[in-house]
Amino acid sequence: MEALKQWLIPYIISNLVFGLCIPVAIKKPMWARLFLAGFFLWAAYFNTSTAINEPSIYLDYARLNTLPWYRNFINGYFSQHITAFVCTIAVGQLLIGAGLMLNKTFTKLACTGGIIFGLAIAPLGVGSAFPATVSMAIAFYILLKNYQHDFIWKWKQYKAKPLSIIIHNNHH
């Protein structure tokens, strides 16, 4: 609870923004792709530079997460190899961001990676702005299952789908 008080404003903003990703992925998929690509590219840069310059910051996640085994891992093996772990995660973030700008298989792989990433960091609790990462994973799922993606600069590739079609298509 103390962590939530400390991070309340960013927590609320993150949950609003990623909560909005769900309806945006349905109504304006290009905007969702652009936002998520930009976010993941920024996260790759931020995490790489932070892991190199101030790696101990990542130890704060031990006190912010909800699962004891996650906390033990962060305080244990992770704490001895922070830069390597975080830079590896940043490469994944870079690939997700870049994949969202490309087409077909690359975008689908990026969406799959985004789903896995969002769910994997959810146990960090306040540190990942949970449930924002679950909302992000849902937005990636909507993009993955409901659209044929072309390169991101082809603006007119999407036709909005009504929610009933999206829900109906996912049941088959």
Short descriptors:
single chain; 172 residues; mainly alpha; 9 helices; 0% strand
Task: Explain the layout of strands and helices.
Blueprint (H helix, E strand, L loop, with lengths): L1 H5 L1 H20 L1 H25 L7 H4 L3 H13 L1 H20 L2 H18 L10 H15 L16 H8 L2
Helix pairs in contact: 2-3, 2-8, 3-6, 6-7, 7-8
Structural class: mainly alpha
Q: How many domains in all?
A: 1
Compute the CA-based radius of gyration. Answer: 17 Å
Q: Would you identify the regions where 5 or more consecutive residues have pLDDT less than 50?
A: none
Q: Count the E strands.
A: 0
Number of helices: 9
Share of helical residues: over 70%
* N- to C-terminal distance: 41 Å
- Mean pLDDT across all amino acids: 88
Overall geometry: globular
Sequence of secondary-structure elements? HHHHHHHHH
Q: How would you sum up the major sheet?
A: none
Percentage of residues in strands: under 5%
What does this molecule look like?
There is one protein chain. The chain is mostly helical and 172 residues long. The protein has one domain (2-167). 74% of the residues lie in helices and 0% in strands. The chain has 9 helices and no strands. The protein has helices at residues 2-6, 8-27, 29-53, 61-64, 68-80, 82-101, 104-121, 132-146, 163-170. α2 packs antiparallel against α3 and α2 (8-27) runs parallel beside α8. It is globular. 32% of the residues are buried.
